[in-house]
Design goal:
Blueprint (H helix, E strand, L loop, with lengths): L7 E7 L4 E10 L2 E6 L5 E5 L5 E3 L29 E6 L13 E7 L1 E12 L2 E12 L7 E6 L5 E5 L23 E5 L17 H6 L6 H11 L4 H13 L8 H14 L5 H8 L4 H12 L8 H9 L4 H11 L5 H13 L7 H11 L21 H14 L5 H5 L17 H4 L2 H10 L1 E2 L2 E3 L2 E3 L14 H12 L11 H10 L7 E2 H7 L4
Parallel strand pairs: 13-16
Antiparallel strand pairs: 1-2, 3-4, 4-5, 6-7, 7-8, 8-9, 10-11, 11-12, 14-15
């Protein structure tokens, strides 16, 4: 049975059940990076925006064509860069104690390296704080695309290393695209010893279960994967015995039991005794993790509705949110509506309001009216009626995915050090022919705007082949009369004159060439 998506989103496939679902459908074009933390909470990146988000609130079951409202951005203020690629949790005794649990992510344009952010619980969700730039390169072709901790606790970074990266600015068959070379870097912390790798390959079931106590997230993950290669008749009794032998006074006891529960889930034979134990755990992280397991096993647990009703009234918002999201996937809509209602009677915050409303609306069959991703901006009063129409069309063009807003951002302020600001810019309000040429044919090379230098690694996209003269004139008129700018509108006739004067032009303008033709005043 086909599973269809709209634009970018996330699919989840269970090989144990042969089950595929659209687990998250939101308004993004390019998802690129998902990671799970110690307790099974998932976070994601997407490359056409600078944000990092929590996936749980956008995991409300989507209807076809719908887009679930996104969550607050987890990137700390002043640290937004794009496109972000690859995401990992710091979980290694080889790294300092104070950075355990941090989120690290790569960036391949402008800032070339790895950002590291501390993440902490706050209410239902999280708060993040910029830690430091873990890695930064001056090599213009450095393209970190993924990263992962190795069994010895060191961090491996995959460098795509390519002179070209844009697919709108450069042909896919451009001979400068490097299909052969790439690099892998290894980051270590010399003043701390490496971790002795746990035995995973060829290890016994008992050894693999004992690995679940290891501090390293990746070791536990690889051990759970290895356990799925053993028979259920061998693993399930061993899990029961292993849990029975755990020290209940151990600070990690409930996490260890949750790991054991995940093992049984991975075998497609979820242990209900462990599930019920974790649903009543003292630590809300464990309770939330257990509700996530229940969400995917309602077909096995007879009293799942009662269990979700109890979770929806939990004292912690994250557990309640897990229950609300789980309810949205239930085939019994009457029971699902009641669970969502129970959760919605409790205090809701910025992390749970949209999810609760979206779940309730979809279960009630309320037709979704997509809220505009960007508020409609009224045309300035000083423009003529015709120019006002251009302004309105121009903002629609500006905010199209993959067009102006992707790099220059909705606020027009750009993103340092890659994408210049349009705010009160002489490049925008100055010579209109220079701006039209820039939009039609693109711009390549370093540029200085308002005293800031931009390296020009990713050229300005040429839109001449994608936009009609009327659209080019409209978007130019829009940017010339927004973002603090005020300048004469541009007409389609003006754009056509530039096209006619440059028949067959395919190449980018360089900054030097454009300024020679149209000097700054």
């Amino acid at each position: 049975m086909p599973v269809r998506c709209v634009d970018g989103g996330f699919l989840r496939y269970s090989p144990q059940r042969g089950h595929l679902e659209r687990t998250a459908q939101l308004s993004i074009p390019n998802p690129w990076g998902v990671v799970f933390d110690k307790w099974g909470q998932d976070f994601f990146l997407h490359t056409s925006g600078p944000s990092m988000n929590w996936m749980l609130p956008v995991s409300v079951k989507p209807t076809f064509g719908s887009k679930t409202p996104s969550t607050p951005d987890l990137i700390p203020k002043g640290q937004s860069v794009r496109p972000t690629t690859g995401l990992e949790v710091v979980s290694s005794r080889h790294f300092p104690d104070e950075v355990q649990g941090d989120l690290i992510l790569c960036n391949a344009i402008g800032f070339l390296g790895i950002k590291q952010h501390q993440i902490q619980d706050e209410g239902t969700g999280w708060k993040t704080t910029f830690r430091h730039d873990l890695l930064k390169s001056t090599d213009g072709n450095f393209r970190p695309a993924d990263l992962e901790f190795a069994p010895d606790g060191s961090l491996y970074v995959l460098d795509w290393h390519n002179v070209l990266i844009g697919h709108m600015q450069h042909n896919a068959r451009d001979p400068l695209r490097d299909h052969v070379h790439g690099r892998i870097y290894r980051i270590t912390y010399p003043s701390r010893p490496l971790v002795k790798p746990a035995q995973v390959a060829g290890a016994s079931v008992q050894t693999l279960l004992n690995n679940l106590k290891e501090p390293e997230l990746r070791t536990r993950y690889r051990s759970r994967r290895a356990l799925r290669g053993h028979s259920t008749s061998e693993v399930l009794p061993a899990v029961k015995a292993w849990v029975a032998g755990l020290d209940k006074n151990d600070a990690q006891y409930e996490h260890n039991v949750l790991e054991a529960l995940w093992v049984t889930w991975g075998m497609n034979e979820v242990d209900e005794t462990l599930l019920r134990q974790m649903l009543d755990a003292k630590d809300f992280h464990a309770r939330a993790g257990a509700v996530r397991v229940l969400r995917y096993n309602t077909h096995r647990v007879a009293d799942h509705v009662a269990l979700l009703e109890k979770a929806a009234a939990d004292e912690h918002g994250r557990v309640r949110l897990e229950a609300i999201v789980a309810a949205s996937w239930l085939p019994n809509t009457t029971a699902a509506k009641n669970i969502v209602a129970i959760g919605s009677k409790q205090p809701l915050d910025e992390w749970s309001k949209n999810a609760a409303k979206t779940a309730a609306d979809r279960l009630a069959g309320v037709a979704e009216v997509a809220a505009p991703e960007n508020p409609v901006i009224p045309a300035p009063a000083y423009l003529s009626p015709e120019a006002k129409k251009q302004f309105m069309l121009g903002q629609e063009v500006y905010f199209r995915e993959g067009h102006c807003t992707t790099c220059h951002q909705p606020h027009g302020g750009g993103l340092d050090p890659a994408f210049p600001s349009l705010q009160k810019s002489p490049w925008v309000t100055g010579d209109q022919d220079r701006l039209i040429k820039l939009v039609l044919y693109g711009l390549i090379g370093p540029i200085e705007v308002d005293g800031k230098k931009y390296n020009g690694q990713v050229p300005m996209t040429p839109f001449g082949g994608m936009l009609k003269d009327e659209e080019v004139a409209a978007v130019v008129t829009f940017v010339r009369n927004h973002f603090g700018n005020k300048a004469e509108p541009v007409t389609a006739k003006d754009v056509k004159a530039i096209r006619d004067a440059n028949p067959g032009r395919m190449m980018f303008y360089t900054v030097e060439e454009l300024l020679k033709q149209h000097p700054m005043k």
